[in-house]
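Chain A, query sequence.
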Amino acid sequence: FTKCPGSPQVRRGRRTRSSSGTRQRPVSLYGPLMEDSYAETKSFLQARTEDASDSFMTESPSLSGFRSGLRLATPPNGQGQGPPTERSSGRHQGQEWVAMAREQQRQAEWAQAQTQATARPDHLPAERPTMSDKSTLKVYLPNGGFNVVKFGDATDIKGIIQLLTCRLGGGQRAFSHLYAMRMVNITGDIHCLHQDTTMYQVHEKYAGHEEEWRYELRVRYIPTDLQDLYEKDKVTFYYYYDQVRNDYLKKNFESLDLDTAIQLCCIEIRRFFKDMPQIALDKKSNFEYLEKEVGLHKFLPKNVINANKPKPLRKLIQQHFKKYAVLGDLECMFKFFEILKSVYRFDQERYRCALGSGWSIPVELVIGPQQGISYMTDSAVQPTHMADFSHIQSLQTVVG
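Chain A, predicted structure.
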């Protein structure tokens, strides 16, 4: 047998088996691999913990020697009281001197072995942190799961993103550059994290308030062609769909057309129940199962459910569902994007700011794959285009 890093000692010639008598199944570095659909794995990441920094400690002959020295030097009772002393009763003075000399030598050997066992091996660089120096970070995903990542002070956001996107399935993602991380607190404030920021800098900036913030992995840099995204990176496409759908359901719309909300609801019900017949919801027991076991909150925003009575809402869903019952899984998702974009621009980021220096105009900055960099005044209906992303030469942050 070959000893693996961090594994318990195993005697030669013996096999270790599980309590059931079957051989343990090996686990890959990136955990369970996904199929084409990210949406099919709802909570496979909830118990995963992995290191995001490049500071894994591997076992070597020198480490084995130190650990064996530690085992030899540790007293049987494990309390670290030193080696047992020799009994001196019944001895004459010469024998007592010999016993004392042996005792001193034994004490010196024990102290030397203990020092060697706790010393850092020469083959490990001093600047690399040990596992005890690391903290854990919980990063939430749009499907309700989360990842737990180990990191050191020097670990940057880019390294954490690379680790998390590899875990989504199949190793490196073709569109891994679309992902970003952000922090959200209980009041709804959002801070996007730059990829070159280290975790030391994050903790230094938000010291004392870490528990108030929730870390999230997001698809932030949206491509112009979602069909191309689906063909080249299905995992990222499904991840983005879950993200958009959850943002829509959580959003508190001031006014949302009921007919549009019902259409989006029916499309998602069709995608959720792939093999449901066209007239399945006409049966009362089927609709009751949908309401009680699944819940309409997974298909409609909360304010739509609260603003409408259950019986009229049920009739509208039954009428509209038949129109979308023939759609396939992919057709449902693209139709969902198409209808949602008419009431909620999920493909844009908007920021209130002032345009110009000195005498400035308050505007809303609009950033997105279709609009590039644009702005809107209070009286404008459509955003005014200023530049495309390809026109940007440099960015400068002015603090004052």
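The first helix runs from residue 61 to 73. The chain has eleven helices and ten strands.
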